[in-house]
UniProtKB/TrEMBL annotation:
Positions of transmembrane segments: 101-122, 134-157, 177-196, 234-257, 285-307
Protein family (similarity comment): Belongs to the binding-protein-dependent transport system permease family.
PANTHER family given in the database record: DIPEPTIDE TRANSPORT SYSTEM PERMEASE PROTEIN DPPB-RELATED (PTHR43163:SF6)
Single Gene Ontology MF annotation: dipeptide transmembrane transporter activity
Subcellular location, record wording: Cell membrane
Cellular-component GO terms for this entry: plasma membrane
Name this polypeptide is given: Peptide ABC transporter
Record Pfam families: BPD_transp_1 (PF00528), BPD_transp_1_N (PF19300)
Organismal lineage: Bacteria, Pseudomonadati, Pseudomonadota, Alphaproteobacteria, Rhodospirillales
Keyword Transport: yes
Organism: Elstera cyanobacteriorum
Membrane topology: Multi-pass membrane protein
């Protein structure tokens, strides 16, 4: 167990270092002069020189990279050029919305997909299976920002059941916060639920053809118990794989969905920083999102070892 664990930790660390190098190169080396990118083409030379000194751009690239990594390890993400406040404060404030939004979307996606996928596998070739597959095809075809617009039109404008353009904050209580996040979480969850439904259906169908499933039925176990206790449990490995990958898509989709619903989250902060050419915020937020995605993938790999003993023996 220790050997595969160390191997996966080493892979995650190497991926994180490589990602930081690529991100630093794209934002601070390839543009030529980050200060000119931030201030625009008409900036005066003395202004450019002052910004370079303020941001430490007059030093060598290797020293700037190591200083950036060292600062992040100590919680120092630098000072936002636009907002003039520490980037760590901006990220902490916006993450309190984006993280619950992503977790709620994952929960909704799982609650929708697992029952539908299992139902489609149990009713393979029947009307229920056809209906579930139509839902899956539509969910894959329609992007999450379009679903978000339809949800706003239906449940915020036509029937004003949910708020749009405001977030009360968690200080007002858990229920008001979840009520404000439900529509954007649903917009994020539905396309991912469609993909997960297809994966769950295929995985459960494959398991249902195994010999031990027929043995369980021959022992007199009910269809419901066979599906839930044996088939679905054995099909969890590919399902967990897709859940880990979906978290990356949810992080990317949150940038669009938070802007559509005007939510002050991490995705909206990244979008605003890009418009305002605040490369400090862009670099730090993008690195944080990359670290979150790599960490989630690491947790998925560790879940494999827990779900499938054969992987532990192979390690």
């Amino acid at each position: 167990m220790l050997r595969p664990l160390l191997s996966r930790l080493g892979t995650a660390l190497a991926t994180l270092i490589l990602g930081s190098l690529v991100l630093f190169t794209l934002l601070e080396v390839l543009p030529g002069d980050p200060a000119a990118v931030m201030l625009g083409l008409e900036a005066q030379p003395d202004t450019l020189a002052a910004v370079r000194r303020e941001l430490g751009l007059d030093g060598p690239a290797a020293a700037r990279y190591l200083g950036w990594i060292w600062g992040m390890l100590h919680g120092d993400f630098g000072l936002s050029y636009t907002y003039r406040v520490p980037v760590a404060e901006l990220i902490a404030d916006r993450l309190s919305l984006t993280l619950p939004l992503a977790l709620l979307a994952i929960a909704l996606s799982t609650l929708i997909a697992l029952p539908l996928g299992t139902l489609a596998a149990a009713k393979h070739g029947r009307a229920a299976d056809t209906g579930v597959m139509i839902f899956a095809q539509l969910g894959v075809a329609v992007p999450n920002f379009w679903i978000g617009l339809l949800l706003i039109l239906g449940f915020a404008l036509t029937w004003p059941l949910f708020p749009v353009g405001s977030f009360p904050g968690w200080g007002q209580g858990l229920l008001p916060g979840l009520h404000a996040l439900l529509l954007p979480a649903l917009a994020l969850a539905l396309p991912q639920a469609a993909i997960l439904t297809r994966v769950a259906r295929a995985a459960v169908l494959e398991v249902l053809s195994e010999d031990y499933i027929r043995t369980a039925r021959a022992k007199g176990l009910s269809d419901q118990r066979v599906l839930v206790r044996h088939a679905l449990r054995a099909a969890l490995v590919p399902i967990v794989t897709i859940l880990g990958l979906q978290f990356s898509f949810l992080v990317a989709g949150a940038i669009l969905v938070e802007n559509i619903f005007a939510l002050p989250g991490l995705g909206r902060l990244l979008y605003q920083a890009m418009n305002q050419r605040d490369l400090i915020v862009v670099k730090d937020v993008a690195m944080l999102l990359a670290a979150v995605v790599i960490t989630v993938n690491l947790l998925v790999d560790l879940a494999y070892l827990w779900l499938d003993p054969r992987l532990r023996r192979a390690g």
